[in-house]
Amino acid sequence: MPYDATELKDWQIAELADKNIPTPEQLVEMLALQKDELIPYGRTPKVDFLKVMERLQNRPDGKYIEVTAITPTPLGEGKTTTTLGLIEGLAVRGKNVGGAIRQPSGGPTMNIKGTAAGGGNALLIPMTEFSLGLTGDINDIMNAHNLAMVALNARMQHEANYTDEELAKRNLRRLDVDPKNVEMGWIIDFAAQGLRNIMIGLGGKKDGFLMQSKFGIAVSSELMAILAIAKDLPDLRERIGKIVVAYDKTGKPITTHDLEVDGAMAAWMRNTINPTVCYTAEGQPVFVHAGPFANIAIGQSSIIADRVGLKVFDYHVTESGFAADIGFEKFWNVKSRLSGLKPNVSVLVATIRALKMHGGGPAVVPGRPIPEEYVNENLGLVEKGCANLLHHLKTIQKSGIKPVVCINGFYTDTEAEVKLVKKIVTEAGGRCVLSEHWLKGGEGALELADAVIEACEEEVDFKPLYPLEMPLRQRVDLVAREVYGADGVDWAPEAEAKAKRFEADPAYADFATMMVKTHLSLTHDPTLKGVPKGWRLPIRDVLVYGGAKFLCPMAGTISLMPGTSSDPAYRRIDVDVQTGKVKGLF
């Protein structure tokens, strides 16, 4: 029986649902694993993916289901909730099903967005472990990343204090780092706006090299992007050595390999290669691997988790970050190209709330009460807002997929509003279902599960939007026009000069194009809702992720370090000192 999600908080539901967590013995049986393929980590073990893939390499893959969304409100529209609800619904239908989602960052968890553990009866458990570090992947990424910065600053200090002869005695060569052209900064897994711009090395010459520096949030690290796309441990190790940390005074890149720190970084990262196993509130297994940052990073559950899931499940559900213009576009043109895996169907999540916002409803501000327009029936706003939904629907269809539109039901939605959305989507040639997984769990997701099962039997002609041979600027123009709806692209002089240099250098021929823009609009401007017309996409810079092999065209200003609000979640999180249980997570 589902829990009363209208009365209970998520952490309370999670606590009650903990009884559904299988024992290690039960999990081995559920996943058809050998005993030595499960790595113990309390209630959230890891799976030894190398052993599993070697044993099951000839087993046919299961059905591959991707979950994306329309342009969200700042509160999010429930992709993770829908992912978990769909898994629960498919399980009710008797399917061997599981999924893969991303590990939450401590920044949003302690701020205003919450844990990304789903919600209501479509929730991930154990919620406390999931929300507070899990098996340490993000911590390992932080240590590995910051070790590169330690190596850089120490090298700059020694080069400033020693002659070439003295450096040679210490078995060091001069790298001649340009302190004004350092690519990396430090990372921490909190939203700490006070660390966006800092000075380090204050004091004397023994206190490091004096320079301007910066912090980003941990999940924005290139190491997280590498973890999401790595095929195996050798691939991970090779990519770590190609991370560009800084540039020398001639403009030549200085990598972690040049700093001789890549091996130690790989040592910190060695355990991150294996996915962690968590569960839906109804007990189905879900792999957790890679992180949530979907702007510069790829923002997908990992290729490794998907590869394992497709071997051990008949239906494997994976989640892409943000809306279809970002998450699905990167799944379509980057992740799937790298993995070689082709999806059977994509689920496009929409909410009545977000449709009303795109139809002209008042601003939705995190931490403030939802305006009454979003809880009272308003067919006019819903109808106008469906333009955004249909835009994303067409984007997915361009890939060769016939998507399923899922209305993620809120108990404030009215029957007339839901019928209107279904009518509009059907008239546009799509399929649309209502799912009440938040309120009812798997039993509330049966309409969605049935639509997905049906869609998985259809032929899919899945093809990327552009060939790898297409030059960078042409790729960006194509994405801007075909995915965002722009009239074209305007390049800042510096960005265009970089793009021309990358296009002319064969070393960048196989680099993926990782578009960077706000997730709150189809455009670069987060205030523009719906489907804006008559605009052009400005590209102000192109960043390089040498290890991940990403070229990142920057549309607008994207901060790698979010800020903490005036009413953050940590004000309500505490520990029950009698039981030791955490309360207040959401």
Automatic annotation (TrEMBL):
One Gene Ontology term from the biological process aspect of the record: tetrahydrofolate interconversion
GO molecular-function term, one example from the UniProt record: ATP binding
UniProt keyword Ligase present: yes
Transmembrane region(s): none
Pathway: One-carbon metabolism; tetrahydrofolate interconversion
InterPro entries reported for this sequence: Formate_THF_ligase, Formate_THF_ligase_CS, P-loop_NTPase
Pfam families associated with the record: FTHFS
Enzyme class of the recorded protein, top EC level: ligase
EC id: 6.3.4.3
Binding residue positions for ATP: 73-80
Catalytic activity: (6S)-5,6,7,8-tetrahydrofolate + formate + ATP = (6R)-10-formyltetrahydrofolate + ADP + phosphate
SUPFAM superfamilies from the UniProt entry: P-loop containing nucleoside triphosphate hydrolases
Keywords: ATP-binding, Ligase, Nucleotide-binding, One-carbon metabolism
Family that this chain belongs to: Belongs to the formate--tetrahydrofolate ligase family.
Xref: NCBIfam families: PRK13507.1
Protein name (database record): Formate--tetrahydrofolate ligase
Species the sequence originates in: Acididesulfobacillus acetoxydans
